[in-house]
Amino acid sequence: MAASRGFTDDYSPALMTDMYEYTMLNAALKDGTANRNCVFEIYTRHLPEGRRYAVLAGTGRILDALAHFHLSDDDLAFLSDNKVISKQCVKWLENFHFSGTIRGYREGEMFFPDSPILQVEGSFAECTLLETLLLSILNYDSAVASAASRMVSAAGNRPCMDMGGRRANEWAAVSAARAAVVGGFKGTANLLAAKLYGLHAIGTAAHSFTLLHDSEKEAFTSQVDALGVGTTLLTDTYDIESAVRTAVEVAGPALGGVRIDSGDLASLAQRVRNQLDALGATNTKITVTNDLDEYALAALQTAPVDSYGVGTMLVTGSGAPTCGMVYKLTERENSAGIMQPVAKKSKNKGNVPGRKLAYRSYEYNLADCEHIIAGSEDQLATYEPKEGWRNLLVDYVVDGVVNSEYQGNDAIIAAQEHRTQALCELPITAQSLMKGDPAIPTEITLL
Amino acid sequence: MAASRGFTDDYSPALMTDMYEYTMLNAALKDGTANRNCVFEIYTRHLPEGRRYAVLAGTGRILDALAHFHLSDDDLAFLSDNKVISKQCVKWLENFHFSGTIRGYREGEMFFPDSPILQVEGSFAECTLLETLLLSILNYDSAVASAASRMVSAAGNRPCMDMGGRRANEWAAVSAARAAVVGGFKGTANLLAAKLYGLHAIGTAAHSFTLLHDSEKEAFTSQVDALGVGTTLLTDTYDIESAVRTAVEVAGPALGGVRIDSGDLASLAQRVRNQLDALGATNTKITVTNDLDEYALAALQTAPVDSYGVGTMLVTGSGAPTCGMVYKLTERENSAGIMQPVAKKSKNKGNVPGRKLAYRSYEYNLADCEHIIAGSEDQLATYEPKEGWRNLLVDYVVDGVVNSEYQGNDAIIAAQEHRTQALCELPITAQSLMKGDPAIPTEITLL
Fold it and tell me: Please, which residues have CB within 8 angstroms of residue A413's CB and are 6 or more apart in sequence?
């Protein structure tokens, strides 16, 4: 199979995993428990301190990854040579294809502590192999989408653009751009993300381009010649006021935009706006960049800024660079072939046993509670939610067949739209940047 | 060229970059400045708050990436179709190969604010294309290596193992494992990292393996059958005391180790140590895991623990998930063909113009100052450092030819050894976990 959206057969995600997944598989194959049917659940015990909600991102990437989740001969030789797995296990892995079922929250959906974000059902063997990969994807992508969502709220109607790739691992940067768009961002500087996911790519020039030329005027002239007067010129390499004058002189009043990347952005934006207006460049946009986060964006609300470029704080989750998602066995077949809820009892790290349903209830069109219903398959099959409760679970994979609705570039746009709508349905405190409790409580019912 | 160490021709690092690198290239080709010789420098303006030093990691990965830094026909079509670049630029890119020179700090070296971590010399065209990629690699890898180094110091003689992959992007996890080893870690749970970089892989079982079985005893028996009595059994799924008893019952007193993943680790380790000793399992090791960071490791010094598994806080840089490294033009050829130092003057974001030398001076075998010497090529060529100053710069790439000494798996071990030695040469305050100033001051001399 050819490479697709970041996963290749050269580097299958099957080895982007912790060794113990394979040692467990190996032991389970040997003792006969590998085929026991299991339900694993991904959830988080808590949101980052004071956050009101989090946004799920990465499920579309999981579906991409599943298509490449198989081991090459080279991978199998590596595992075998290093005594991670036995010959029996090598044989079992040769034709591995996930044949189970994955259901969970929609991409772009808000989640809270204990939300059953993803449930994976299948044999122990196939479910255990997915643990690390699923967590890696969801933990990072959701951290970025959650930060993005707060920034987008703080930015109001002004578009936010991802410029953070240089502050993240080079592949993480690609996922971050995608997750940012799920969280409401309008574009990215990252070219590979734009190419793989069909995102809007942005960017014009760095300070080095101005410094390369003998004068700022030559640099601006070159850029306008290459990109047209609609381009955005970077105005803070030397003196901003003089740069703005030169910019309008070179491009004329139809200049697309100017960018400010240092200093007191609010007061500079105000001065530059007035200067542009005085020069007749009343439609020239102002974009600002420089270590922005949601608090800085909120503080810029009254400044005459048209768009934001956000970097470091976006790709590092604005103080919460990962979610605390875990992957826990909640139900499994016993030696008699009967499904039983299970839970570990580790101190402060226990989990709610059993498979789950998840709903959000509303009062006056505003969400007021997350309802998690835990029980056996039979119990859940006959469970009747109250009227008006929104079912939060969708089927991503059924018996190994991927639901393509949630994969690909359209799914990213759908996720972005879903995030906007679902956020509007939460009490407005969700959008507060003050630390506090989750926007709605979660009620867990054990049937 | 085949895939090598994480970079492939399917996904060349050439697009893991910001769009403006290509729009600048495009404009510079059009205006004739693209071939001007340039020196770019990577440095950081400050360390994360209160950190005493940082550790450079990722240079070996840069050399791997350079080998794949070229554009496929598909990439070129993408850039061209989206009007990022012109036909002239497409043609220029068709046979792109970096032919410049890269020198910088060794992998595993300590760095401080203003340290000229990497200097890239070549035409503007080729240097600008590398900006985003170099920063992505160094910013993330160094963030992880810096955190790892603090953890390793706090852990004393007890080995630290990377178990953080699930809390980072799936590719970032692979880089993190490598960077952790540069920072002094002894192994990783991440299989792809182990395979690509020849790292020691570790890991045995998760709680799900115990829950899968009808009893803890069956799970332990299965694991010992598959992995031998030298394995490490996870003892906190239910009740730790009873699990330890069962573990020794199943494996005998030659049991390799037990792992504790929850609760008050120090007091649990003490109880478990006494229990193991009483059961005759005096050589059974205790490994602990559970949201450890350098402070937790320091607090565990007196507890009878043998090794640590570190996850989230490692791969997220323990509060500093990225370094603030930037890539700035410091010298360039002007229209008359003469090299000139340059610097932007943006508020609080200016840089020191000119190319740099870097040395560390010592008193009584302890480093006392970082010396940065800035000047023209001629000035630096005749500069004589004082006796005993250690030259911090090595040649990574000379005229496009990679110095293989700094690439590959041996370079990772060399970097780890270098980090140990270089840290020993710093004043011991470097290893303090209290917030404070950098361990040594940096003196900048403009010739």
Answer: none
Query: Is B209 close to A27, i.e. CB distance below 8 A?
Result: yes
Q: Of all helices (H) and strands (E), which one includes residue A269?
A: helix A265-278
- Tens of pLDDT, residues A48-96: 999 999 999 999 999 999 999 999 999 999 999 999 999 999 999 998 9
Q: Which CATH code fits B13-145+320-446?
A: 3.20.140.10
Does pTM top 0.95 for this prediction?
yes
Note the pLDDT tens digit of each residue in A102-120: 999 999 999 999 999 999 9
Residues 426-445 of A with CB under 8 A from B: none
**In this complex, which of A26, A131, A226 lies closest to B26 when CB atoms are compared?**
A226
Helix (H), strand (E), coil (C) string for chain B: CCCECCECCCCCHHHCCEHHHHHHHHHHHHHCCCCCEEEEEEEECCCCCCCCCEECCCHHHHHHHHCCCCCCHHHHHHHHHCCCCCHHHHHHHHCCCCCCEEEEECCCCEECCCCCCEEEEEEHHHHHHHHHHHHHHHHHHHHHHHHHHHHHHHHCCCCEEECCHHHCCHHHHHHHHHHHHHCCCCEECEHHHHHHHCCCECCCCCHHHHHHCCCHHHHHHHHHHHHCCCCEEECCCCCHHHHHHHHHHHHCCCCCEEEECCCCHHHHHHHHHHHHHHCCCCCCEEEEECCCCHHHHHHCCCCCCCEEEECHHHHCHHHCCCCCEEEEEEEEECCCCCEEECCCCCCCCCCCCCEEEEEEEEECCEEEEEEEEEECHHHHHCCCCCCCCEECEEEEEECCEECHHHCCHHHHHHHHHHHHHHHHCCCHHHHCCCCCCCCCCEEEEEC
Q: Which of B138, B117, B123, B139 is nearest to B24 (CA)?
A: B123
Q: Residue A241 corresponds to which tokens in the numbers above?
A: 């006021």
Using DSSP, state whether A431 is helix, strand or coil.
helix
Alpha-carbon Rg for chain A, nearest whole angstrom, is 25
| Contact criterion met (CB < 8 Å) for A135 and B194 | no
B350, B343 contact by CB (below 8 A): yes
| Cβ atoms within 10 Å, residue B266 | 17
Q: Which fold has domain A13-145+322-446?
A: nicotinate phosphoribosyltransferase (3.20.140)
Report the C-alpha gap between A291 and A297 in whole angstroms: 10
pLDDT tens digits, one per residue of A174-230:
999 999 999 999 999 999 999 999 999 999 999 999 999 999 999 999 999 999 999
A31-48 per-position pLDDT tens digit: 999 999 999 999 999 999
Distance from the Cα of B364 to chain A's closest Cα (Å) equals 38
Domain boundaries, chain A: 13-145+322-446, 203-290
Residues of A in contact with B169 (CB under 8 A): 136-137, 140-141, 168-169, 171-172, 175-176
Asked if the C-beta of A315 comes within 8 angstroms of chain B's C-beta atoms, the answer is yes
Site of tokens 């749970």? B189
C-alpha dist (Å) from residue B176 to B307, B321, B325: 19, 11, 17
Residue-level pLDDT at A327: 97
- Dist. CA B437–CA B46, nearest whole Å: 10
Q: Does A239 touch chain B (CB under 8 A)?
A: yes
Interface contact B192-A28, CB threshold 8 A = no
Q: In degrees rounded to 5, what are phi and psi of residue A372? A: -110, 120
CATH code of the domain made up of A203-290: 3.20.20.70
Nearest to B170 among A137, A226, A327 (CB): A137
Residue from B212, B213, B227, B265 whose CB has the most chain A CBs within 10 Å, to mutate: B212
**How high is the pLDDT of residue B1?**
42
Encoded amino acid at B182, one letter: V
Q: What is the mean pLDDT of chain B?
A: 96
